[in-house]
């Protein structure tokens, strides 16, 4: 089942994320987080955007969310996506289902562009993004340092609304202001 994250999910979300903090360059966080840190992030993001989990028999197998791309108002139609699946679940389709659900749910939001940053190399992450319609738009060299190594970060992007839908969204937002 894919559903909105609950505060009661935070310990399991934390466990999934801490695996990646300790064992990969998928996140540039270097110290493990606490469930209370995750809870704060979930509450903050769900005020305006999405944080979803993939649950199976009471176990959280993955989570995905979007956050604002930048703070300036001109960026208000763009978000950055993040997705993590339990290490034991990798390659079993959980990530694809979860990400597709996130993109589908974003159709109900005034969001036109989804941007994903990927620490490189990461062939699995590149593959899922391109399979779901993202395309590479940039690569920054040596912008992160983890485990004593410099890491490049690539950015993939997807327009999820047409130009007409974007114009209608902007008009609606301007009218609400």
Largest sheet: 7 strands, mixed
List the strand order in the largest sheet.
1-2-3-4-5-7-6
Tally of helical segments: 5
> What's the shape?
globular
Radius of gyration: 16 Å
Structural class: alpha+beta
> Could you give the distance between the termini?
37 Å
Uncertain runs with pLDDT below 50, 5 residues or more?
Answer: none
Number of strands: 7
Mean pLDDT: 94
Q: Which band does the percent of strand residues land in?
A: 25-35%
Give me the strand/helix succession. EHHEEEHEHEEH
Helix content: 25-40%
Describe the SSE topology.
Layout: E1 2-4, H1 10-23, H2 35-46, E2 51-56, E3 59-68, E4 78-85, H3 94-105, E5 113-120, H4 123-131, E6 135-146, E7 149-159, H5 163-176
Parallel strand pairs: 4-5
Antiparallel strand pairs: 1-2, 2-3, 3-4, 5-7, 6-7
Helix pairs in contact: 1-2
Q: Explain this structure to me?
A:
With 177 residues, this protein is α+β, with helices and mostly antiparallel strands. It has helices at 10-23, 35-46, 94-105, 123-131, 163-176, and strands at 2-4, 51-56, 59-68, 78-85, 113-120, 135-146, 149-159. The N and C termini lie far apart (37 Å). The mean pLDDT is 94. 23% of the residues are buried. The protein has a 7-stranded mixed β-sheet with strand order 1-2-3-4-5-7-6, with helices on both faces. α1 (10-23) crosses α2. 34% of the residues lie in helices and 33% in strands.
């Amino acid at each position: 089942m894919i559903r909105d994250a609950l505060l009661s999910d935070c310990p399991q979300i934390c466990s999934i994320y801490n695996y990646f903090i300790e064992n990969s360059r998928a996140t540039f966080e270097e110290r493990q987080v606490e469930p209370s840190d995750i809870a704060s992030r979930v509450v903050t993001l769900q005020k305006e955007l999405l944080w979803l989990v993939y649950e199976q028999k009471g176990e959280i197998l993955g989570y995905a969310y979007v956050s604002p791309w930048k703070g300036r108002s001109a960026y208000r139609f763009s978000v950055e996506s993040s997705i993590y699946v339990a290490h034991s679940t990798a390659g079993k389709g959980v990530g694809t289902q979860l990400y597709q659900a996130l993109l589908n749910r974003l159709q109900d939001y005034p969001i036109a562009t989804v941007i994903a940053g990927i620490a490189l190399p990461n062939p699995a992450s590149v593959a899922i993004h391109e399979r779901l319609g993202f395309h590479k738009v940039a690569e920054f060299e040596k912008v992160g340092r983890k485990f004593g190594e410099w890491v490049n970060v690539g950015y993939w992007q997807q327009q999820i609304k047409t130009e007409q839908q974007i114009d209608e969204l902007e008009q609606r937002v301007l009218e609400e202001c």
